[in-house]
Amino acid sequence: MSEEKTSSLQLVWKRRDAGGGRTQRDYLDFVVDGESLSEKIGGDLVSCLGWFVPSENAKAVRRLLLEEKSVLPDNRLQLYVCPECGELDCGAITAIVERRDGKIVWRDFAFVSGYDEIEHSEKITEVDSFAFDRRQYRNTFNGLL
């Protein structure tokens, strides 16, 4: 991979409104270079942060920090999940997250559903890869643990 632009990452509170059988969820959205990743990707999913039970929220943070192993192959992590249950069976937006040259890289975004169907994921072409400064990335998540 050629020299990558270093992106900025922020976590911003966002609300999924209730109605029509939908549960209201307040969650932390990933904002990359000032743009909401959830808005860029679209769909009715919420991030894996800020809305679920504290122990699961902490696990999600540790996975994003690459301190805990992913439940998916190839260091693929769930970024956006079902807003009702958070289960992969309902579908999730995932990315491969890895350390590279002092950076944390998110790449190969895909929509996956079902633990047994990972290899049949649907690639997301609206989003390219992002490289974050490792220190800034860690500081973004530190307050959530």
Question: What would a concise description of this structure say?
Answer:
The protein is an alpha+beta fold. It contains three helices and ten strands; from the N terminus they run E-E-E-E-H-E-H-E-E-E-E-E-H.
Textual characterization of the structure:
There is one protein chain. The protein has 145 residues and is of the alpha+beta class. The chain has one domain. The chain has three helices and ten strands, in the order ββββαβαβββββα. The chain has helices spanning 37-41, 54-64, 134-142; strands at 6-7, 9-16, 25-32, 35-36, 46-47, 76-81, 92-100, 103-112, 122-123, 130-133. Strands 1, 5, 6, 7, 8, 9 and 10 form a seven-stranded mixed beta sheet that branches. Strands 2-3-4 form a three-stranded antiparallel beta sheet. Strand 3 (25-32) and strand 4 form a beta hairpin. The longest helix has 11 residues, at 54-64. The N and C termini lie far apart (32 Å). The model has no long low-confidence stretch (mean pLDDT 90).
